[in-house]
Write a structure and sequence with these properties.
The protein is built from 15 helices and 16 strands. The relative contact order is 0.17. Bound molecules: zinc ion.
Protein backbone atom coordinates (compact mmCIF):
# COMPACT_ATOMS: atom_id res chain seq x y z
CA UNK A 1 0.00 0.00 0.00
CA UNK A 2 1.28 3.42 -0.95
CA UNK A 3 0.08 6.88 0.12
CA UNK A 4 1.18 9.34 -2.54
CA UNK A 5 1.19 13.09 -3.23
CA UNK A 6 1.16 13.98 0.47
CA UNK A 7 1.34 17.76 0.69
CA UNK A 8 3.41 17.50 3.88
CA UNK A 9 4.30 14.46 5.98
CA UNK A 10 4.71 15.41 9.67
CA UNK A 11 6.29 13.74 12.69
CA UNK A 12 9.48 12.30 11.18
CA UNK A 13 11.41 12.22 14.44
CA UNK A 14 14.79 10.51 14.23
CA UNK A 15 14.62 9.31 17.83
CA UNK A 16 11.77 7.80 19.81
CA UNK A 17 11.99 9.51 23.18
CA UNK A 18 10.22 12.20 25.18
CA UNK A 19 10.45 15.65 23.56
CA UNK A 20 11.25 18.31 26.16
CA UNK A 21 11.17 22.11 26.31
CA UNK A 22 12.12 23.72 22.99
CA UNK A 23 12.23 20.32 21.24
CA UNK A 24 8.46 20.23 21.55
CA UNK A 25 8.11 23.03 19.00
CA UNK A 26 9.80 20.96 16.29
CA UNK A 27 7.72 18.55 14.23
CA UNK A 28 10.07 17.42 11.45
CA UNK A 29 8.38 17.14 8.07
CA UNK A 30 8.83 16.40 4.40
CA UNK A 31 6.91 18.18 1.63
CA UNK A 32 5.51 16.35 -1.43
CA UNK A 33 6.02 12.96 0.14
CA UNK A 34 4.93 9.35 0.01
CA UNK A 35 4.62 6.62 2.67
CA UNK A 36 4.84 2.90 1.90
CA UNK A 37 3.09 0.39 4.14
CA UNK A 38 3.35 -3.38 4.24
CA UNK A 39 1.08 -5.37 6.53
CA UNK A 40 0.83 -3.41 9.78
CA UNK A 41 4.01 -1.38 9.39
CA UNK A 42 5.61 1.58 7.66
CA UNK A 43 8.36 0.18 5.43
CA UNK A 44 9.45 3.38 3.74
CA UNK A 45 8.77 7.07 3.10
CA UNK A 46 10.39 9.83 1.12
CA UNK A 47 10.05 12.53 -1.48
CA UNK A 48 7.66 11.98 -4.43
CA UNK A 49 10.55 12.75 -6.82
CA UNK A 50 12.34 9.62 -5.58
CA UNK A 51 9.30 7.33 -5.59
CA UNK A 52 9.62 4.09 -7.57
CA UNK A 53 6.24 2.37 -7.68
CA UNK A 54 5.98 -1.41 -7.59
CA UNK A 55 3.60 -3.57 -9.61
CA UNK A 56 0.28 -4.30 -7.97
CA UNK A 57 0.65 -1.75 -5.16
CA UNK A 58 -2.61 -0.30 -3.83
CA UNK A 59 -2.49 3.50 -3.80
CA UNK A 60 -4.14 6.30 -1.90
CA UNK A 61 -3.72 9.71 -3.50
CA UNK A 62 -3.41 12.22 -0.64
CA UNK A 63 -3.16 15.24 -2.96
CA UNK A 64 -3.25 18.46 -0.90
CA UNK A 65 -3.49 16.55 2.39
CA UNK A 66 -1.27 16.44 5.46
CA UNK A 67 -0.29 13.09 6.96
CA UNK A 68 0.83 12.59 10.57
CA UNK A 69 1.03 9.84 13.18
CA UNK A 70 -2.27 8.85 14.84
CA UNK A 71 -2.84 10.06 18.40
CA UNK A 72 -1.71 8.16 21.50
CA UNK A 73 -4.26 8.92 24.25
CA UNK A 74 -2.44 7.96 27.46
CA UNK A 75 -5.24 8.60 30.01
CA UNK A 76 -8.87 7.49 29.66
CA UNK A 77 -11.64 5.79 31.60
CA UNK A 78 -13.56 4.67 28.54
CA UNK A 79 -14.99 1.46 29.96
CA UNK A 80 -18.11 2.66 31.79
CA UNK A 81 -21.82 1.97 32.06
CA UNK A 82 -24.15 4.75 30.97
CA UNK A 83 -23.75 8.49 30.60
CA UNK A 84 -24.33 11.13 33.29
CA UNK A 85 -26.06 14.01 31.53
CA UNK A 86 -28.70 14.41 34.30
CA UNK A 87 -25.86 15.28 36.64
CA UNK A 88 -24.51 17.69 34.05
CA UNK A 89 -27.84 19.52 34.02
CA UNK A 90 -27.92 19.49 37.85
CA UNK A 91 -24.54 21.22 37.82
CA UNK A 92 -25.79 23.78 35.27
CA UNK A 93 -28.67 24.50 37.62
CA UNK A 94 -26.15 25.28 40.35
CA UNK A 95 -26.58 22.19 42.52
CA UNK A 96 -23.53 21.59 44.69
CA UNK A 97 -21.30 18.53 44.56
CA UNK A 98 -22.81 17.36 47.88
CA UNK A 99 -26.39 17.77 46.59
CA UNK A 100 -25.51 15.90 43.40
CA UNK A 101 -23.88 13.11 45.42
CA UNK A 102 -27.00 12.96 47.63
CA UNK A 103 -29.13 12.60 44.47
CA UNK A 104 -27.00 9.59 43.53
CA UNK A 105 -24.46 11.34 41.29
CA UNK A 106 -20.67 11.24 40.97
CA UNK A 107 -18.34 8.26 40.72
CA UNK A 108 -20.75 6.28 42.94
CA UNK A 109 -23.37 6.70 40.21
CA UNK A 110 -21.03 5.11 37.66
CA UNK A 111 -20.10 2.41 40.19
CA UNK A 112 -23.75 1.46 40.81
CA UNK A 113 -24.49 1.34 37.09
CA UNK A 114 -21.40 -0.71 36.43
CA UNK A 115 -22.42 -3.23 39.04
CA UNK A 116 -25.77 -3.71 37.24
CA UNK A 117 -24.22 -4.04 33.77
CA UNK A 118 -23.05 -7.36 32.33
CA UNK A 119 -19.49 -7.84 31.16
CA UNK A 120 -20.86 -8.35 27.64
CA UNK A 121 -22.79 -5.05 27.62
CA UNK A 122 -19.81 -3.17 29.05
CA UNK A 123 -17.57 -4.67 26.39
CA UNK A 124 -19.95 -3.74 23.57
CA UNK A 125 -20.33 -0.13 24.75
CA UNK A 126 -16.56 0.29 25.13
CA UNK A 127 -15.93 -1.28 21.71
CA UNK A 128 -18.21 1.34 20.17
CA UNK A 129 -16.27 4.09 21.98
CA UNK A 130 -13.03 2.70 20.55
CA UNK A 131 -14.56 2.94 17.06
CA UNK A 132 -15.62 6.49 17.85
CA UNK A 133 -12.14 7.64 18.96
CA UNK A 134 -10.48 5.83 16.07
CA UNK A 135 -12.57 7.95 13.67
CA UNK A 136 -11.09 11.12 15.21
CA UNK A 137 -7.57 9.75 14.80
CA UNK A 138 -6.72 7.84 17.98
CA UNK A 139 -4.61 4.74 17.33
CA UNK A 140 -3.47 3.89 20.87
CA UNK A 141 -5.25 4.32 24.16
CA UNK A 142 -4.73 3.66 27.86
CA UNK A 143 -7.88 2.58 29.73
CA UNK A 144 -8.36 2.56 33.51
CA UNK A 145 -10.60 0.54 35.76
CA UNK A 146 -12.05 2.38 38.78
CA UNK A 147 -15.85 2.21 38.53
CA UNK A 148 -15.98 -1.28 40.04
CA UNK A 149 -14.92 -0.30 43.57
CA UNK A 150 -15.24 -3.97 44.58
CA UNK A 151 -13.13 -6.99 43.73
CA UNK A 152 -15.78 -8.38 41.36
CA UNK A 153 -16.43 -4.99 39.72
CA UNK A 154 -12.78 -4.08 39.21
CA UNK A 155 -11.94 -7.51 37.79
CA UNK A 156 -14.95 -7.24 35.46
CA UNK A 157 -13.65 -3.92 34.11
CA UNK A 158 -10.09 -5.19 33.70
CA UNK A 159 -11.30 -8.32 31.89
CA UNK A 160 -13.28 -6.09 29.51
CA UNK A 161 -10.12 -4.06 28.84
CA UNK A 162 -8.14 -7.27 28.22
CA UNK A 163 -10.78 -8.44 25.74
CA UNK A 164 -10.74 -5.07 23.96
CA UNK A 165 -6.97 -5.31 23.74
CA UNK A 166 -7.17 -8.79 22.20
CA UNK A 167 -9.85 -7.85 19.65
CA UNK A 168 -9.12 -4.24 18.66
CA UNK A 169 -6.76 -2.88 16.02
CA UNK A 170 -5.90 -0.09 18.46
CA UNK A 171 -2.94 -0.52 20.79
CA UNK A 172 -4.36 -0.67 24.32
CA UNK A 173 -2.73 -0.37 27.77
CA UNK A 174 -4.58 -1.29 30.95
CA UNK A 175 -4.40 0.50 34.30
CA UNK A 176 -5.79 -0.71 37.62
CA UNK A 177 -7.47 2.23 39.43
CA UNK A 178 -9.18 0.44 42.33
CA UNK A 179 -8.36 3.53 44.43
CA UNK A 180 -10.63 5.87 42.44
CA UNK A 181 -13.06 6.54 45.30
CA UNK A 182 -14.12 4.91 48.54
CA UNK A 183 -17.09 2.59 47.90
CA UNK A 184 -20.33 3.48 49.69
CA UNK A 185 -20.31 0.26 51.72
CA UNK A 186 -16.92 1.16 53.21
CA UNK A 187 -17.63 4.79 54.12
CA UNK A 188 -15.68 5.51 57.27
CA UNK A 189 -13.45 2.44 56.94
CA UNK A 190 -10.88 3.33 54.35
CA UNK A 191 -8.37 0.82 55.74
CA UNK A 192 -10.76 -2.03 54.95
CA UNK A 193 -10.95 -0.92 51.32
CA UNK A 194 -7.16 -0.49 51.10
CA UNK A 195 -6.80 -4.06 52.37
CA UNK A 196 -9.30 -5.24 49.75
CA UNK A 197 -7.29 -3.54 47.00
CA UNK A 198 -3.94 -4.86 48.21
CA UNK A 199 -4.85 -8.31 49.49
CA UNK A 200 -7.76 -9.33 47.26
CA UNK A 201 -7.66 -7.44 43.97
CA UNK A 202 -3.93 -7.13 43.27
CA UNK A 203 -3.00 -10.83 43.57
CA UNK A 204 -5.67 -11.79 40.98
CA UNK A 205 -4.68 -8.93 38.68
CA UNK A 206 -1.04 -10.00 38.83
CA UNK A 207 -1.86 -13.69 38.32
CA UNK A 208 -4.11 -13.06 35.32
CA UNK A 209 -1.93 -10.30 33.81
CA UNK A 210 -4.88 -7.89 33.82
CA UNK A 211 -3.00 -4.57 34.09
CA UNK A 212 0.16 -2.79 32.98
CA UNK A 213 -0.06 0.06 35.50
CA UNK A 214 -1.51 0.99 38.88
CA UNK A 215 -3.10 4.39 39.54
CA UNK A 216 -4.56 6.24 42.55
CA UNK A 217 -6.90 9.23 42.71
CA UNK A 218 -4.64 11.11 45.14
CA UNK A 219 -6.86 13.96 46.32
CA UNK A 220 -8.23 15.47 49.53
CA UNK A 221 -11.26 13.49 50.67
CA UNK A 222 -10.25 10.51 48.51
CA UNK A 223 -6.80 8.92 48.99
CA UNK A 224 -4.07 10.81 50.89
CA UNK A 225 -0.31 10.65 50.41
CA UNK A 226 0.19 7.68 52.75
CA UNK A 227 -2.62 5.69 51.12
CA UNK A 228 -1.13 6.50 47.73
CA UNK A 229 2.36 5.31 48.70
CA UNK A 230 0.95 2.13 50.20
CA UNK A 231 -1.07 1.24 47.07
CA UNK A 232 1.64 2.16 44.56
CA UNK A 233 4.19 0.07 46.46
CA UNK A 234 1.85 -2.91 46.61
CA UNK A 235 1.32 -2.51 42.86
CA UNK A 236 5.05 -2.41 42.26
CA UNK A 237 5.48 -5.67 44.16
CA UNK A 238 3.04 -7.15 41.63
CA UNK A 239 5.03 -5.75 38.71
CA UNK A 240 2.77 -2.75 38.01
CA UNK A 241 4.42 0.60 37.32
CA UNK A 242 2.71 3.67 38.78
CA UNK A 243 0.65 6.37 37.12
CA UNK A 244 -1.06 8.95 39.33
CA UNK A 245 -4.04 11.33 39.38
CA UNK A 246 -2.27 14.31 40.98
CA UNK A 247 -2.95 17.97 41.80
CA UNK A 248 -6.33 18.24 40.10
CA UNK A 249 -8.16 20.04 42.93
CA UNK A 250 -5.47 20.66 45.58
CA UNK A 251 -1.72 21.05 45.82
CA UNK A 252 -0.57 18.94 48.77
CA UNK A 253 2.38 16.86 47.56
CA UNK A 254 0.85 14.30 45.16
CA UNK A 255 3.28 15.13 42.34
CA UNK A 256 6.24 14.64 44.71
CA UNK A 257 4.90 11.28 45.90
CA UNK A 258 4.40 10.18 42.29
CA UNK A 259 8.01 11.07 41.49
CA UNK A 260 9.34 9.36 44.64
CA UNK A 261 7.44 6.21 43.73
CA UNK A 262 8.89 6.23 40.21
CA UNK A 263 5.60 6.98 38.45
CA UNK A 264 5.68 6.84 34.66
CA UNK A 265 3.36 9.87 34.62
CA UNK A 266 1.55 12.26 36.95
CA UNK A 267 -1.70 13.37 35.38
CA UNK A 268 -4.01 16.44 35.69
CA UNK A 269 -1.77 19.09 37.37
CA UNK A 270 -4.31 21.92 37.32
CA UNK A 271 -2.90 23.00 40.72
CA UNK A 272 0.87 23.02 40.62
CA UNK A 273 3.50 25.64 41.44
CA UNK A 274 7.15 26.29 40.70
CA UNK A 275 8.10 23.65 43.32
CA UNK A 276 6.34 20.82 41.42
CA UNK A 277 7.82 21.99 38.11
CA UNK A 278 11.32 21.91 39.63
CA UNK A 279 10.77 18.38 41.01
CA UNK A 280 9.47 17.17 37.63
CA UNK A 281 12.53 18.60 35.86
CA UNK A 282 14.79 16.42 38.01
CA UNK A 283 12.73 13.27 37.37
CA UNK A 284 11.79 10.87 34.57
CA UNK A 285 8.07 11.21 35.41
CA UNK A 286 6.00 12.59 32.53
CA UNK A 287 3.57 15.43 33.34
CA UNK A 288 0.32 14.67 31.51
CA UNK A 289 -2.32 17.37 31.12
CA UNK A 290 -6.04 16.75 30.56
CA UNK A 291 -7.43 20.08 29.31
CA UNK A 292 -10.91 18.82 28.33
CA UNK A 293 -11.50 17.81 31.98
CA UNK A 294 -10.43 21.29 33.16
CA UNK A 295 -12.76 22.78 30.53
CA UNK A 296 -15.76 20.62 31.47
CA UNK A 297 -15.31 21.28 35.23
CA UNK A 298 -14.46 24.96 34.70
CA UNK A 299 -11.13 24.50 36.50
CA UNK A 300 -8.11 26.64 35.69
CA UNK A 301 -6.12 25.07 32.84
CA UNK A 302 -2.77 23.56 33.85
CA UNK A 303 0.23 25.89 33.32
CA UNK A 304 1.39 24.13 30.14
CA UNK A 305 3.23 27.13 28.71
CA UNK A 306 5.23 27.66 31.91
CA UNK A 307 6.04 23.94 32.04
CA UNK A 308 7.34 23.76 28.48
CA UNK A 309 9.23 27.06 28.80
CA UNK A 310 10.96 25.71 31.90
CA UNK A 311 12.20 22.74 29.85
CA UNK A 312 9.66 20.05 30.66
CA UNK A 313 8.21 17.62 28.12
CA UNK A 314 4.45 17.27 28.53
CA UNK A 315 1.91 14.77 27.21
CA UNK A 316 -1.76 15.58 26.57
CA UNK A 317 -4.66 13.15 26.97
CA UNK A 318 -8.47 13.21 26.98
CA UNK A 319 -9.40 11.68 30.38
CA UNK A 320 -12.46 10.34 28.44
CA UNK A 321 -14.98 9.49 31.21
CA UNK A 322 -18.71 10.01 31.87
CA UNK A 323 -18.33 12.48 34.75
CA UNK A 324 -15.70 15.08 33.93
CA UNK A 325 -14.66 14.64 30.28
CA UNK A 326 -17.35 12.91 28.22
CA UNK A 327 -15.36 13.29 24.99
CA UNK A 328 -12.49 11.44 23.39
CA UNK A 329 -12.18 13.95 20.56
CA UNK A 330 -8.50 14.81 20.22
CA UNK A 331 -8.77 17.33 17.35
CA UNK A 332 -10.95 19.40 19.70
CA UNK A 333 -8.51 18.84 22.58
CA UNK A 334 -5.65 20.01 20.34
CA UNK A 335 -7.49 23.23 19.49
CA UNK A 336 -8.33 23.81 23.16
CA UNK A 337 -4.69 23.28 24.15
CA UNK A 338 -3.52 25.85 21.62
CA UNK A 339 -6.26 28.37 22.40
CA UNK A 340 -6.43 28.10 26.19
CA UNK A 341 -2.89 27.02 27.10
CA UNK A 342 -1.04 28.79 24.25
CA UNK A 343 0.62 25.66 22.92
CA UNK A 344 1.99 25.97 19.40
CA UNK A 345 0.36 23.55 16.94
CA UNK A 346 3.61 21.57 16.75
CA UNK A 347 3.84 21.37 20.55
CA UNK A 348 0.26 20.14 20.80
CA UNK A 349 0.76 17.47 18.15
CA UNK A 350 4.02 16.26 19.73
CA UNK A 351 2.29 16.09 23.12
CA UNK A 352 -0.42 13.89 21.55
CA UNK A 353 1.85 11.64 19.48
CA UNK A 354 5.47 11.06 20.57
CA UNK A 355 5.02 12.23 24.17
CA UNK A 356 1.66 10.48 24.50
CA UNK A 357 3.36 7.31 23.25
CA UNK A 358 6.07 7.73 25.92
CA UNK A 359 3.39 8.17 28.62
CA UNK A 360 2.08 4.68 27.74
CA UNK A 361 5.45 3.16 26.83
CA UNK A 362 4.71 2.47 23.18
CA UNK A 363 7.22 4.94 21.72
CA UNK A 364 9.30 2.19 20.08
CA UNK A 365 6.31 1.20 17.89
CA UNK A 366 4.17 4.37 17.68
CA UNK A 367 4.18 8.17 17.94
CA UNK A 368 6.17 9.14 14.85
CA UNK A 369 6.72 8.37 11.17
CA UNK A 370 9.61 5.90 11.03
CA UNK A 371 10.46 2.73 9.15
CA UNK A 372 9.40 -0.29 11.22
CA UNK A 373 6.78 1.58 13.24
CA UNK A 374 3.13 0.57 13.18
CA UNK A 375 1.24 2.28 10.33
CA UNK A 376 -1.12 4.35 12.49
CA UNK A 377 -1.70 7.46 10.42
CA UNK A 378 -4.04 10.41 10.06
CA UNK A 379 -4.69 11.77 6.56
CA UNK A 380 -6.23 15.25 6.66
CA UNK A 381 -8.67 16.76 4.22
CA UNK A 382 -7.03 19.27 1.84
CA UNK A 383 -5.91 22.11 4.18
CA UNK A 384 -3.55 25.08 3.77
CA UNK A 385 -1.09 24.16 6.55
CA UNK A 386 -0.56 22.61 9.98
CA UNK A 387 -1.73 25.63 11.98
CA UNK A 388 -5.09 25.45 10.20
CA UNK A 389 -5.93 22.26 12.14
CA UNK A 390 -6.25 23.76 15.67
CA UNK A 391 -7.32 27.13 14.24
CA UNK A 392 -10.49 25.59 12.75
CA UNK A 393 -11.65 24.33 16.16
CA UNK A 394 -14.67 22.05 16.00
CA UNK A 395 -14.16 21.37 12.29
CA UNK A 396 -13.67 17.78 11.23
CA UNK A 397 -10.47 18.09 9.22
CA UNK A 398 -9.74 14.35 9.23
CA UNK A 399 -10.21 12.61 5.90
CA UNK A 400 -8.96 9.08 6.66
CA UNK A 401 -7.47 7.21 9.60
CA UNK A 402 -5.19 4.21 9.14
CA UNK A 403 -4.65 1.84 12.05
CA UNK A 404 -2.20 -1.02 11.74
CA UNK A 405 -2.01 -0.53 7.97
CA UNK A 406 -5.77 -0.59 7.43
CA UNK A 407 -8.05 2.34 6.64
CA UNK A 408 -10.84 2.26 9.20
ZN1 LIG B 1 -8.68 10.38 35.03
Amino acid sequence: MLITNIKELFGIHLESSLLKGKEMATLPSLEKAYVRIEGEHIIGFGSMTELKTRDGEAMIDAGGCLVMPAWCDSHTHLVFAGSREEEFVDKLKGRSYAEIAARGGGIQNSARRLQDTSEEALYEAARQRLDEIARTGTGAVEIKSGYGLSTAGELKMLRVIKRLRNNSRLTIKSTFLGAHALPERQRGDKQAYLREIIEEMLPVIAREGLADYIDVFCEKGFFDLDDTRQILRAGRRCGLKAKLHANQLHNFGAVQVGIEEGALSVDHLENISEAEIECLKKSNTIPTLLPTAAFFLRLPFPPARQMIDSGLGIALATDYNPGSSPSGNIPLLLAMSCIQMRLLPEEGINALTMNGACAMEVESELGSIAVGKKANLIISKPVPDLAYLPYRFGDNWINKVMIGGEII
